[in-house]
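Hi R.,

Here's the chain you asked about this morning:
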Amino acid sequence: MVRRPRTLRDTLLGWASNPTARHLAILGCDALATVVALWFCMLLRFEGRVPELWSEAATQALPLLIGLRLLLVMVFRLHRWSFRMSGLSEAIRLGLTMFAGTCFFVFIFWKGYGLHLPRTVVALEYFVTTTLMGLLRFAPRVGSSWWLERVRSRRDGARRTLIVGAGSAGDLLARDLLRSSEHQFQVIGFADDDPAKLGTFIDGKPVLGRIEDLPILIAHHHVEMVLLAIPNLAAERIREILTLCASQKASFKIIPASFTWLDGRISAAMLHDLAPEDLLPRAQVAFDRDEIRKLVAGRRVLITGAGGSIGGEICRQLADNGVSLLVMVDMNENELYLGARRLRVAHPEVEVRTEVADIRDPARLRRLGNEVRPEFVFHAAAHKHVPLMEEAPEEAIKNNVFGTLNVARMADACGADRLVFISTDKAVKPTSVMGASKRVAEMVVRDLARTSRTCMTAVRFGNVLGSAGSVVPIFKEQIERGGPVTVTHPDCTRYFMTIPEAVGLVLLAGLGGYGDLCVLDMGEAIRIADLAAHLITMAGYVPGREIPIVFTGLRPGEKLAEELLTEEEEKTQVVRNRIKVARPPPPPADLAQKLEELRRLAEHGDREGILRALSAAVPTYCFTPAQPLEPQAVSGELAEVVPLRAAGAERQLTS
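And the predicted structure, written out as tokens:
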């Protein structure tokens, strides 16, 4: 094998990777800097012609000065220098070390040798030596930053970047971005609301303006990426920023709150795309892991609907908290298989069992319950799509009402300690078959709980971000296709939670023994049209200009706004943060007769009869037909709305 000749680059790299050689080289350069500084100051003091007497004194002083300087450099470990990570604190340490060296030199040289140098030379030497040693240590970093900046600006895919927040987090982020070449961010400056920071420079980059100036800054400086570097930035403020920047084409990333002060560093790897959960009008719920673990550790648990978004998250959190047996029940065998496989890999200590079963089959459920003997049963299986259930009300009754009845009877028959039923805000004053069927299911669970040994609780909450078939994944898919993004009505609002926090609250509410109907506090409702516009902005597009928003009108069974409580349930007891216990009236005395009527109508497919029977069982149920929009402008902060197709059918957001 022919060896490649050693080049100068190889020699330098080998020296840089050898700590001993690097330390000796730094000490040698420091000694040379001391010599150069002393003679430069002597020549400067005597205008280029040093008298022999002073020249002899300088020659005698030089070994002592070099020795003191190098000794203190080693004592304070300034020869072990990080050329890439050094900062202000290291510069201060260097200055103080050099000052200490000058003081020792003056004391020893003047007292010990009986000689002295001109005071101006001693003072100038301190400043010149400190400057030369500082240049030696900081020049590589400055040169590297300059070179990396040029490399990033010329690289394909480089994105002109503005950092929002000129505080400590923004400073830490900028430092990492300016030192690293492993990203595409070309930082051009900062935006901050502190008037004292406007016009100042941070890490060599200017504070260009206030946050409210973002649209102008993005347009003027051709910004492509906005990095939000303000710790614990409120969701309301994030929504304001997105609304401000809706007319500009820029993408957004944010520093997660959990990473903000991690080891005093923030890196590009910690940044994540702005997500819908960052827009929630409240702080996300934090959980005490030990509290949940105490409730479920070592338990046998059965979950219906385990292949769905909520059921799957229940399974994940239960496995995380140490259940002994996890029985996953669903009709969707593909999602059931994939979910169980992920759990077995992540938690080999948990026994994970899958059962393909239909909750409408009571005999199958009874056999499963007797075989497994679960201590806790979570019932998350349901038909949840409002428009589909309007077209097939008999299926909603069979699955949501009688499927729930079958699961509740199974939990009672096998002696389960607790049954937790997942309900919905659509069950409050329902206008859809799906909502009405879930309201009847709540009655079923609460009615059976009165005579059962099993503690049964219905937990009611609103929409969850990112669940299968929900609005956010649909919006994202439409944005990826280039639009349009379809919204039912400009004034439509919904409550939202993230899947993990909704499930965490379900575990606490359902297993806490608080009552037979718990309601999760969802915070403020979010306007769906605003959510659509913000998602478009977050994707780097201009709502209305690049991605149109089309209003299609309310579909059958849909409401403009959802509610979490009826008037009868308003007197609730808050048992803990985000969990309320409702006090609804008892189920009707003739509930059994109403259920038999619903069963008969569902088996015969009598859809009109089902609607009448639901109205009898749920007096607040009111069927809502489709509501096409009229061709008129809709007030709001998004934009002007004009007719798109047939009058009253759809309308498009335009800029």
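The chain is about 45% helix and 15% strand.

Let me know if you need anything else.
M.
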